[in-house]
Amino acid sequence: MFIKILFIVLFLVITIGVGVYCRKKATDVNGFVLGGRAVGPWLTAFSFGTSYFSAVIFVGYAGQFGWNFGLASTWIGLGNALIGSYLAWKVLGRRTRVMTQHLGSATMPDFFEKRYESKALKLAAAAIVFIFMIPYTASLYNGLSRLFEMAFHIDYWVCVVVMALVTALYVVLSGYVGTALNSLIQGIIMLIGIVVVVVAALNVNGGLSASVELLSQVEPVGDYTSIFGPDPVALLGVVLLTSLGTWGLPQMIGKFYAIKSEKSIKTGTVVSTVFAVVVAGGCYFLGGFGRIFMTADEVNGQFDSIIPSMLSKIDSDVVIALVIMLVLAASMSTLSSLVLTSSSTLTLDFIAPMKKTKMSEKSKMSAMRIFLVFFIVVSALIAIVQARTKIAFITDLMGISWGTMSGAFLGPFMLGLYWKRATKPAVWASFIFSVSINVTFMIFKLSGNISLLPKLLQASSNVGVIAMLAGILLVVVVSLLTKKPDEKKVDEMFECYEKKVTVSQREALE
């Protein structure tokens, strides 16, 4: 117990210390939200990766989908690396940085207003972020607290409160720069932790070969060690949701707004991809062995208990302490990114436009810090209530939130960067469809009537993927059927991509 407490205290002291150290970087809105658009490649890459993967992945997704698909669940992690990290940087990184600076945009809703010339779109996007970011945030506490209960035998609510207080303290103090620097430290812990944990867990059953052999005997024999698992179609749905979804999430896209230079993009692409292979691949690979640690009767539908149960069988205090630090680092980095995105969006895109007089920098900073604390408190309360009532699993909380925002924003944002023909009505169509289909799923899920929906719509992952793909299609179709946007104004927006720049030869050959 002493070792566990020592590790946690040391981690928390460093985290808060970074917040205090970086507080001078958060004196205005640009510094607090975007780090002055001067964040280096390693900070940006680790900030992207640690915002991507959290206790939701490690405890919720790895547990449930590892149970469902066996070793084939590793494809989810590899899809996260290729589609969710590498292609996201390649397709969106540079264009996002260039156009958002050209338009003077600090948030995703602000981009929608300036790109499509609609204040109403900005307000609608801000409302979607405000509403659907909260269940995602709540799911983070859930996964972390289950592991704390296993390691320290303390009440769930105590874990939630401590995590909320520490995160609020360092994000309020330091904003984006402190969050990014902490993400670098937390990311290193995650990389080391996942390797150690996978090795330790497999050694419980005699190592990799012995563990695979045991898994291959689970009924139906061979299904859980096959290359695509027992349900390849469902597996593909999860890969797409968790990978393509990052392309439309405000807290992920916001990392591209703050990129410092061309070098940052190149380095960030490689680092974030490698990070995803190790962390996400490791998490899902570990989850794939869940069936040799627990029986179906022991799980009894409580998939969130699988990973904690696996870890409880590791006979090493140091490894368990490292696991706690791993999940604490993953959760706090993602939580800080979510609440920073939520508070800045609500302040800059919803409150400020509604006021008759222009808000000063000081007023905006105060409002963002207040809303930041508000988001943390509300999500913490939801997490506590959810744990007591068992309303939904971690995967459902995250799936509804992730699916709604990505479904609404992916098509309008991506095509808005590349296609001059995209129109305002098309963006509305994407917003309305995504919110409608995900809210319908949520109503049926919470009411216990999910079986009344078509089979394809009975999983939050499928609903999210449908929303994303339909959103892209709707933007294309509706744009072609509606009036073209003002050609001159759109050309002015896209001229930023044609601007000539001069660099030294050590950066680029002639």
Explain briefly what this protein structure is.
This protein is mostly helical.
How many strands, which pairing sense, and closed or not: the largest β-sheet?
none
Work out the strand percent: under 5%
Radius of gyration over all CA atoms, rounded: 22 Å
Q: Kindly report how far apart the N and C termini lie.
A: 61 Å
Separate helix tally? 20
Q: Which descriptor suits the 3D outline?
A: globular
Mean pLDDT: 83
Question: What is the total tally of β strands?
Answer: 0
User: Secondary-structure element order, as H and E?
Assistant: HHHHHHHHHHHHHHHHHHHH
Instruction: Determine the CATH topology of the domain at 2-10 and 37-106 and 126-376.
Output: Sodium/glucose cotransporter
Give start-end ranges of low-pLDDT stretches.
none
Could you estimate the helical fraction of the residues in percent? over 70%
- CATH architectural arrangement of the domain at 2-10 and 37-106 and 126-376: Up-down Bundle
Question: Structural class of the secondary structure composition?
Answer: mainly alpha
CATH class of the domain at 2-10 and 37-106 and 126-376 equals Mainly Alpha
In CATH, the homologous superfamily of the domain at 2-10 and 37-106 and 126-376 goes by the name Sodium/glucose cotransporter
